[in-house]
Specification:
The protein is an alpha+beta fold and about 475 residues long. The chain is built from 19 helices and seven strands. The strands form two sheets. The protein has a five-stranded antiparallel sheet. The protein has a two-stranded antiparallel sheet with strand order 3-4.
């Protein structure tokens, strides 16, 4: 049997760039975990992992932490993931034997899977599963001295197809504004985490917004099929994906979703376009070929569920059909909100609450707060508390399990929790009372921006956390004062 078809050296440089980019995203993901996980999910976090593990069996959330969890052990796990990812970014693993290279790439996948599967609402985002599925396929791409396996490259294209086409279909079936091309009248203003250019995107002429939506439909509903075409068509299709994802990077903050989609598109680019010279390929082990064939067969079987989801009328988005987060379904923004609301957390150190009480705001790192503060560039970094508070602004039920604990942490001035904020209005002390109010936000007009220097106009519209204080048992309890 001839195995000449198994590898394609024309994609050697594409594989190399893909691997470096993916390893960099892994590194970022582990750094995010090191910075935020313990405050959100640690032993004294908002949703402690030990409590979750006590009621969740291993088969429902495969994770190393079922064997043991402590904050120190978590730091060891995330730190190891960051270290291995840095090694992979550097290229130090390129000369390893195939088996050793595969094992090294499996380390960050196993470690990040362990984190995601205990991460609860804080790790419920679609880009977590996307990183895990991409990272799993990367295990089988092989080191620099063997030809890139064609079947794995096709599986990466199949993943990219599901990401793009799934997002296109959920829009086409979802909010009517996607079909009448008006969604971007609202989206740049109401998206979860606006960026420094989002105000300008929002104020583009409305006909250009319609062009944006139409171009998005072409990029997500037509172009994905061209990824499977011969070169140079596949490279052109990949280029369209890269450009449209870059447009999204400029217009908003979506963690590493856009960057990892660009990374997947790189795998479809003709390697000859990169200024890198491939070495003479070595012999590909027979066992490695068999493993790749097995991977392909398993992916074909697991693809039944996302294909059925794509073709069915009740399409769901960002869903994993198995606990290993393999061969998932993707999509985003099937529905667009027309109005923006923000949860603003406030505290006071006055001994009693009266109508004249002076409240001071906690400012988060990414989401809108102070109307005069320009939305920052956060992506590809991921601010998990900021994102979850956006969901709470849509419905308080999204924070039912952790908002009371957040109030408690602020009342005791918990050091780790306060690190999730950009500004603590009570440095060196703790507030006597805290509350959270809901505000309606809209972008300033050009004239308002010139006159006031503000990016937003806001007004209070409701209450999310009623005024509360610290009780004797160390928990936050509501008080009878008006909000």
């Amino acid at each position: 049997m001839s195995w000449d078809w198994f590898g394609d050296q024309d994609y050697w440089a594409s594989r190399l760039v893909f691997q470096r980019m993916l390893a960099a995203i892994y590194l970022l993901a582990f750094l995010v975990a090191l910075n935020q996980f313990r405050a959100l999910l640690g032993e004294r976090g908002l949703l402690p992992v030990p409590r979750f593990l006590s009621r969740t069996p291993f088969r429902e959330s495969p994770s190393l932490f079922h064997a043991h969890y402590s904050d120190r052990f978590f730091v060891a796990v995330a730190g190891t993931g960051a270290l291995v990812s840095a090694v992979l970014v550097s290229g130090l693993a390129d000369g390893l034997p195939v088996w050793a290279h595969m094992l090294l790439w499996a380390v960050p996948w196993v470690l990040y899977l362990s984190i995601v599967n205990v991460g609860q609402v804080w790790y419920s985002f679609g880009w977590e599963s996307l990183l895990l599925e991409t990272g799993f396929l990367a295990i089988f791409l092989g080191p620099a001295h063997v030809e890139p396996p064609v079947l794995v490259l096709w599986l990466l294209l199949w993943l990219l197809f599901r990401v793009e086409f799934g997002a296109g279909m959920i829009k086409l079936r979802g909010d009517r504004c996607w079909r009448d091309l008006t969604c971007l009248y609202y989206h740049h203003e109401t998206q979860p985490m606006p960026g420094p250019l989002s105000w300008y995107f929002h104020h583009l002429p409305r006909p250009l917004h319609k062009v944006e939506v139409a171009a998005n439909h072409v990029a997500q509903l037509v172009v994905p099929f061209l990824l499977f075409a011969p070169q140079p068509v596949a490279t052109v299709a990949a280029g369209v994906v890269i450009v449209t994802q870059g447009w999204l990077v400029l217009s908003g903050n979506f963690a590493w979703l856009n960057v990892i989609t660009i990374t997947l598109a790189v795998s479809a680019v003709d390697g000859g376009l990169f200024p890198l010279t491939p070495p003479q390929p070595g012999e590909t082990p027979l066992w490695y070929r068999a493993v790749v064939l097995g991977l392909t067969a398993a992916t074909v079987v697991l693809s039944y569920w996302p294909i059925r989801n794509l073709l069915g009328r009740g399409q769901i988005m960002n869903y994993s059909f198995n606990r290993l987060h393999l061969v998932n379904t993707y999509g985003a923004f099937g529905t667009i909100t027309r109005d923006r609301h923000e949860v603003i957390i406030e505290g006071t150190d006055e001994p009693a609450v009266t109508p004249e009480t002076r409240w001071r705001e906690y400012e988060l790192k990414g989401k809108p707060g102070d109307p005069r503060r320009r939305p920052p560039q956060i992506a590809p970094y991921h601010l998990r508390l900021d994102w979850q508070l956006w969901f709470v602004s849509l419905s308080s039920r999204y924070g039912t399990r952790w908002l009371p604990e957040l109030a408690t942490k602020l009342l005791i001035a918990d050091r780790r929790t306060l690190k999730l904020f950009r500004r603590n209005p009570f440095p060196g002390s703790a507030p006597k009372f805290v509350r959270a109010r809901l505000f309606h936000y809209r972008y300033t007009t050009r004239q308002e921006r010139r006159e006031t220097g503000a990016w937003w106009v806001r007004e209070p519209v409701g209450t999310v956390i009623r005024t509360c204080r610290l009780a004797e048992d160390g928990t936050a309890v509501p008080v009878g004062y008006p909000d």
